[in-house]
Design goal:
GO molecular function, one term: exonuclease activity
Strand order of the largest sheet: 5-2-1-6-7-8
Keywords: DNA-binding, Exonuclease, Hydrolase, Nuclease
Protein name: 5'-3' exonuclease
Structural class: alpha/beta
Strand content: 5-15%
Function: 5'-3' exonuclease acting preferentially on double-stranded DNA.
Distance between the termini: 18 Å
Order of helices and strands: EHHEHEEHHEHEEEHHHHHHHH
Helix content: 40-55%
Number of helices: 14
Pfam families: 5_3_exonuc (PF01367), 5_3_exonuc_N (PF02739)
C-alpha cells in the first residue's frame, strides 16, 4: 500500500486565491459581512483531503511576510507590496476573515502556525525536509518548486490556476516547465528574477538563458566560479552581464532559497477524523454562515 502523505498547506497562498476567486457578494453573512476567503479556503482544503488522502495535515502561516534578513540582502524584496512600515497590503475585507479562518482550523483540529522571522515558505521547507515522507506541499507560489525531491517523496501541488487544476509536480514536471531540475530552481529564479517578489534578476538574462546557464555550469556558486575562468566559454556580452550582477546574485540566492531548518513549535499533524471542538465549529458555522463548507470539510476529514 502506498504511504499516505503529509499535506503541507501554504495557507496565505490559498486564502488570497479564494478571496480573489470568489466574489464577496457570493459569500456573506446575513449582515453582509464577506466570508468568501473562509468558505473558499475550507472548500479547497476539503477537496485536497478527498483527492490526496493525507494522513497528516499542517497549515503554514506568514509570521513574517517580509523577513528583515531577506530585506537586508535585497532591499527591493517585496517592497512594492508594503502598505506602511512592515505591513503588507491586504484588502480590508480579507484581513477581517483571517482570524475567523484560524479559529475554524483550531476548532477542526488542524495545526496552523508561522515562525517569527520566517515566511510560510520556510515553514513548508522545514516540514518537507524534516517530516517523514511522502510530503505534498500545496501552494500557488512557484518558488516552492525548489522543494520537489523525488528521492524523499516531496511533491508540489501547484495551484497557480486553482485547486481544480492542480499541477502535481515531480522533478520531471519542473524540468519540462522550466528547463532545470528542482534542486537548482532557486538558482535559476535568482538569475531570472521575479517582479512579484521585487527581485530584479540579472539584467538581460531571461528565463531561457538562465536555464541554459544552470544546465551548463550548475548553480549560482558554480556560475560565479566559472566567471573567473577565461576558458569557461561565456559569450563576451553575457560574461559582462553576469560580472555586473555578481554582487546581486551572491545576495539574491539566499533570498530565493527556502529555509529548511526553522525551529518549529510542537504540533500534532495527525489528520483529525472528527472536529476537535465540535461546539466551537458549530458556533463559528452559525455566526459566519459557513454551515455548508464546514460540513464538506468535516465529511472529507472523516472519509
Amino acid at each position: 500500500m502506498t504511504a499516505q502523505p503529509l499535506l503541507a498547506v501554504d495557507a496565505p497562498s490559498l486564502y488570497f486565491r479564494a478571496f480573489h476567486g470568489i466574489p464577496e457578494k457570493a459569500a456573506q453573512t446575513s449582515a453582509g459581512e464577506p466570508v468568501n476567503a473562509i468558505r473558499g479556503f475550507m472548500d479547497m482544503l476539503a477537496q485536497l483531503i478527498r483527492t490526496r488522502h493525507p494522513d497528516r495535515i499542517v497549515c503554514a502561516l506568514d509570521a513574517s511576510w517580509r523577513p528583515a534578513w531577506r530585506v537586508a540582502l535585497v532591499p527591493s524584496y517585496k517592497k512594492h507590496r508594503v502598505a506602511h512600515g512592515d505591513v503588507e497590503v491586504v484588502p480590508p475585507a480579507l484581513e477581517k476573515q483571517i482570524p475567523v479562518l484560524l479559529e475554524v482550523l483550531k476548532a477542526v483540529g488542524i495545526p496552523a502556525f508561522g515562525v517569527d522571522g520566517y515566511e510560510a515558505d520556510d515553514v513548508l521547507g522545514t516540514l518537507a525536509a524534516g517530516q517523514p515522507g511522502p510530503v505534498e506541499v500545496v501552494s500557488g507560489d512557484r518558488d516552492l518548486f525548489q522543494l520537489v525531491d523525488d528521492e524523499r517523496g516531496t511533491r508540489l501541488l501547484y495551484c497557480g490556476r486553482g485547486v481544480a487544476k492542480l499541477e502535481d509536480a515531480d522533478n520531471a514536471l519542473v524540468e519540462a516547465k522550466y528547463g532545470v531540475p528542482a534542486k537548482w530552481y532557486a538558482d535559476f529564479a535568482a538569475m531570472r528574477g521575479d517582479a512579484s517578489d521585487g527581485l530584479p534578476g540579472v539584467a538581460g538574462v531571461g528565463e531561457k538563458t538562465a536555464a541554459r546557464l544552470v544546465m551548463r555550469y550548475g548553480g549560482v556558486d558554480e556560475i560565479l566560479a566559472a566567471l573567473d575562468d577565461p576558458d569557461a566559454g561565456f559569450a563576451p556580452g553575457l560574461r559582462t552581464k553576469l560580472e555586473d550582477a555578481r554582487d546581486y546574485l551572491a545576495k539574491a540566492l539566499p533570498v530565493c532559497k527556502v529555509a529548511l531548518d526553522v525551529k518549529l513549535p510542537e504540533f500534532d499533524p495527525a489528520r483529525p477524523r472528527a472536529p476537535k471542538d465540535p461546539d466551537a465549529l458549530l458556533a463559528l458555522a452559525d455566526r459566519w454562515n459557513l454551515a455548508s463548507s464546514a460540513k464538506r470539510l468535516v465529511d472529507a476529514l472523516a472519509g
